[in-house]
Amino acid sequence: MCRGLAALPITCLERAKDLKSRLGILLHKPELGHRIRTSSKLQLGSRQRDSSREVLEWRESFDQLLKSKNGVTAFHTFLKTEFSEENLDFWLACEDFKKTRSKTKLASKANRIFEEFVQSEAPREVNIDHETREITRKNLSGATSACFNEAQAKTRTLMEKDSYPRFLKSASYQDMTKQA
Known about the structure:
This protein is mostly helical. The chain has a single domain (about 45-180), classed as Regulator of G-protein Signalling 4, domain 2 (Orthogonal Bundle). The protein has nine helices and no strands. The longest helix is centred in the C-terminal third of the chain and has 21 residues, at about 150-170. The radius of gyration is 19 Å and the shape is elongated. The chain starts with 9 loop residues before the first helix and ends with a helix. GO terms for molecular function: GTPase activator activity. This is Regulator of G-protein signaling 16. It is a lipid-anchor. InterPro entries: RGS, RGS_sf, RGS_subdom1/3, RGS_subdomain_2.
């Protein structure tokens, strides 16, 4: 998170977040499938039903949201309004990391992810405890596709228990469900 924002009065931050959230809705609607352009009315109706169903499925579970490309995009947009998208970015980087097969690429990707998200004072530091941070640091010496598992799980739990419920209550998600 941006450390300089702490100096602003809380009311300014809340108003800025609310405004950014509302503007984000307008900016990202085409990405979420709300304005599908096609010449076939039948195809348009089918896609809109699929998108509508998908939006409604996001509230069933956090897993449903993460399985959906549009869900991840909407959640990421919401997290940006709260200045906390680093958690999701870290989780996505770990998912991509697990797909890496080359040992040399595995080690370099592991170091990049650690430096960007995990180490103390990292540019996009995720909120994990010191013990998990140290376990992850030790795991880097023999980088495997599982070296971030504990840190990723803690970050995922944090998003599921904290950010996800706020996302479901947000004006942007409520607008999407009304349109669905």
